[in-house]
Amino acid sequence: MKWAVITGSSSGLGLAMTSYLLEQGWSVAGGSRSGTDIEDENFYDLELDVTDAEAVDEFYRTLKDLTPKVHLFIQNAGVCEMNPVSKIDIENFGMHLATNTLGAFFMLQGLKPFLIEGETHIISLLSTASKFGYPEMAAYNASKFGQRGMLESIQKEWKNLKLRFTPLYSGAVDTPLWGNLNSEFSNERMLSVEEFLYVFDFVVNAPKNLRLADLTFIHREGFLE
Questions:
Q1: pTM summary value
Q2: Cα separation of 180 and 177, whole Å?
Q3: Topology given in CATH for the domain delimited by 3-217
Q4: Strand 121-125 and strand 164-170: pairing?
Q5: Which tens digits make up the pLDDT trace of 135-167?
Q6: Angle, nearest 10°, between helix axes 53-66 and 103-111?
Q7: Which residues of 96-125 are buried (b: 16+ CB within 10 A; e: fewer)?
Q8: CA distances for 13 relative to 119, 174, 200, angstroms
Q9: DSSP labels for 58-95?
Q10: In this structure, what DSSP letter does residue 123 have?
Q11: What is the pLDDT of residues 8-52, one digit of tens each?
C-alpha cells in the first residue's frame, strides 16, 4: 500500500486531491485544522496547524504510528487574502509568511525521516503567484515567492536522495476560496477543479524518470487581470 500525505485536506483542492487519491487506492493521511468530512477506511484525518512547530511534530509522531515511509507528499495548505498595500498590516503579512512559507518549511523539515530514496514524490501547489506579482496580493506574492525559493534550495540539498519534486504553478481555480476573498474576478476565466485534477492525475502517474520542473497551467484566456 502506498502512502500519501496532504496538508490542507479539509476543503478546496486539498479535499479534491484527497478524494482522488483514495479512489485510486492510496492510503492518505490528511492534515487540517478543521477536519475533513471523508469516511474511508484508508483515510486518516489528523489535526494539523502548519504554523505551529509543535503541532507539526505531533502530526509526524502520529504519522509514524501509521507508516514509516511516505511515497507522495502534497504541500497544499495555505492562506490568501487580497488587500492593497496601504491596508496590509504586520499581522496580516506575517500570517501569510507563517502559513505559506514557514509552514511549508516545518512540514518538509519533518518529512525527512519518511523519505524513500529514489521514490518519494513531493508536489507543491505554488500557483502562478510564486512567479508573477499581482495587484493587491503583495503579502500572498511574497509568501509564495519565498516558498518557491525555499523549495528550490531543499531540492538541491536533497539531490543525492534522488527524489521527485514537482512544483505546480496553476492559475486561478474555481474553489470556495474566491468567495471568501470578495474578489471581482469572473470564475468563467478560472480553471475548474476537474481541469486541475486532470493535470494532477498526469503528474501523479507520470513515469518516475520524467521531471516536470516548471509546470504552469492556466485558463486558455490567460491570467486574471
A1: 0.93
A2: 5
A3: Rossmann fold (3.40.50)
A4: parallel
A5: 888 999 999 999 999 999 999 999 999 999 999
A6: 30
A7: bbbbbbbbbbbbbebbeebbbeebbbbbbb
A8: 24, 9, 10
A9: HHHHHHHHH-S--SEEEE---------GGG--HHHHHH
A10: E
A11: 999 999 999 999 999 999 999 999 999 988 999 999 999 999 999
